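User: quick one, fold this
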Amino acid sequence: MAHPAVIRADLAERTRRHVTRHLMPFLFFLYVVSYIDRINIGFAGLQMTGELGFSNAVFGFGSGIFFIGYVLPGIPGAILVEKWSARKAMTTTMLIWGAVAAATGLIHTKPEFYIMRFALGVTEAGFFPGMITYLTHWYCPKDRAKAVAMFMAAIPMSQVIAAPISALLLKVQWLGLAGWRWLLILEGAPAVVCGIVSWFYLTDWPRQAKWLEPEEREWLSSELERESGTKASAGRMPWYRALGNPNVLLLCVVYFGGTTGTYGLGLWMPKMLQRVGHLNAVATSWYTAIPALVAVPVMLIFGWHSDRTGERKWHTAIPRFAGAAALAGVALVSVNLPAALVLFSAGFAGVVAAYPSLWAIPSSFLGASAAAASIGLINSIGNLGGFYGPYTIGWLSDKMGSYAGGLWAVAAALFLSGALVLVVRPGGGLKRLSPLIAIAAILASGRVSRAQPYPKPTELPNPYRLVEGWPTLPKNMNGGRWGEVIRVHVDAKGNIWVFHRCFNVAPAGSATCIGQGPANPPILEFDAAGKLLKSFGVGLFAYPHGFTIDGEGNFWVTDVNDAETILGMSAKNASGVVMGQEALKLNPDGRILMMLGREGVAGIGADGFDRPTGVAVAANGDIFVSDGHAPNKHNASRVVKFSKDGRFIKEWGRKGSAAGELNEPHDIFVGGSRGWVYVADRGNSRVEVFDPEGNYITAWKQFGQPSSVFVGKDDTIYIGASFPDSSAKKGELRGITIGNAIDGSLKAFIPDPADLDKVIRGTSASGIAADSEGSVFAADVGAHNLRKYVKVK
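Assistant:
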């Protein structure tokens, strides 16, 4: 009997094939019809401009004004597909635009040309964003770039199909009408027919698809519902807020650069080839098909590879850079027809090959309605490039007497498009653009996570048990009793290292190592069985707090002391310097290798800390320090980044509750498969997530008020947290919340066995770690304990 996983994989593949066979040929044909109605003006212009006496500027403006009319209706078009009905929305759209497209063949004057092109833009605006939204109803995230590639392959195929048809229609003279008029009339009619067919053929949602087998309907529906739930866990964004999301606005500009190239080339390439090769209208139409034929497989390959790797931004940027280089080559030197065809082929392929991965980005970080609205906005605003490209080429060609200036403008737009997509951060911030744009992004988006219907901690499973009597402390160390334990870390050998406050418990919650003597070292090493192996660090710390071990086996620690005396005792070390306000790097024997900050001096900026709470080291050696334990002198709440050799790189964050701001960042961890930076933003009761450059990704409140954070190599996140709960003792739950470090979903909760009468309210495990076996270690300041939990098998 086949394994269930194999059966499920077979069901998934069968469903994908069934959906693609049923929907994609029809959707592809609809887009071919749509796209031909946009670009056939380029072929018609080979005769129309001469007959009606239009200049290049007039033709370029009239061709591009389509996209002015295209701007506003795109957003409601996409939302109608999401909220109302794809079948009804598409039927209505195609019936109206088909009539307008056909009527364009009856124009005689410049104003009529402008009006009909503008009207066509208005009536067709909802189609493309509606179709992209519709694909999200039928394809899971990992399949979307490939689906979009198949769908958008209609762009180059439209050129391939339109070229020979237009060549034939340009030769006809029926009923006294020129060929270009019949071209527009007859190529507009299929939209009307397709609108009628869509009413009967399209299905809005998988659960309504009688053409799917019952198990196929159930599998696809459940997968799409799971995706919706995953995105909800990262904070559902209303559709109207998505329109102000800085990443969405940036994608508008990215798409603008692409449409500048798509329509600039689509509408002007026939005339450019005609001039280069001294061709007649019919021959030009045939040659125009060659770049489009080249673009089809390139587009499909990029879409397939983007889905296979899960990478989107570089799959968008690289084709755009290549396209820009090719068009610059045409503009830079005089080329013959074969060379022009090669460069235009590379340029056109570079433009369209970026679309599949680009259109997979919005739905990767926005919920359904927000994604639909953002797709509509990106399509509407971005398609202004369809006005800019044709008009700029036409205007510059009139001014300069050649197409070189227009090609340079298009090449620049493509290069900008490729560069800006690399700045997009699908969860948030845009700090690489500039500090001002980063602040604008935060203000525009206001991405503070809202309360979500996550399970209560008590509703989550607890697949762990406490290992009683672990570890074993020697009797000569405080009689075998713990004091305040602040951090714990598992090294590469599986040994457990503990950073604690020298078995002291005074003052409560802020115990000091001062005056504890050589019998109470702050750094201890245990084996997995709990046997003490090593200890050191006497005399190095006043108020231990942050602790980690880097990839070379060295220790990184922070001291948050900010006072010259504690409980009447001097906080100065043997050299007479006040201990605290620094991050230290120690070798395995306890020798200081590096100091960050100024010992005993509170400060901010590149060379000072104001009570540094945690330290983390990335795989490349970069050092991240969370700074700003409450209370502090400079109101600090930030993350400071240094290079491996201690050189200041940057800082981010300030005190506040908005996205990217912090309020007492109590712990920090760098890691997981993405190498993200996770900050226990305790004062705001959330975990904030950044990329290593400080770009804000998301914030999670579902884990509780965090005191500690750890992420395993398998992207499991562990948070030492407390939760307000009126039914609990002292109105609070304490424990370890376990979830997914990528999407923030919750998996388990380990309740703290400590008696709340004996701990400080609002605290939890201040140090957390897990080993390769899945065992969890918790260092607890309030409960004066170090605990080990193992999975129940």
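User: anything notable?
Assistant: The radius of gyration is 32 Å.
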